[in-house]
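Journal club prep — side note

Before the paper discussion, L.F. wants everyone to see what a predicted structure for a comparable chain looks like in token form. Sequence:
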Amino acid sequence: MSARSLNKVQLIGNLTREPELRYTTGGTPVVTFGLATNKSWKDQDGNVKEIAEFHNIVAWNKMAEICQQLLAKGMKVYIEGSLSTRSWEADDGSTRYKTEVRVNDMILLDSKGKQGAGFDADVQHPTEEPESVPEEETTPVDDTTTNEDPLEDSDLPF
């Protein structure tokens, strides 16, 4: 019998940059953005300490289009997804790694979305169809492999 495992991430934080929407050469939408989470505590002397963690977020397909339409830098959002680590060979021959959170679900925690539409419900079921982004505003991404995550590090904005 195989052992069970779980790869689940839940984050509440603020966007650190505007979502960037791209399309693979096959037409699959993918959006990337950053999310910051904060932790605070009191040290032994009673001083309040705070630290920020920064997360790379990636969403695919319909969720990518929804994130592009509704999210903006600074907004508070709940993200649920899984961790995904990619590796590649850098120009200097070293192996580099990047860990990302792949979005499965997203909920706006601000009272209004980027468009001022007032969405504060689970956006997997939006009341409006997201507008498509004009082709000239996007950068194609190579999707020649069968891997679901065809992005190369040089294609990512972070």
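L.F.'s comment for the group: The helical segments are 61-70. Keep this in mind when we get to the figures.
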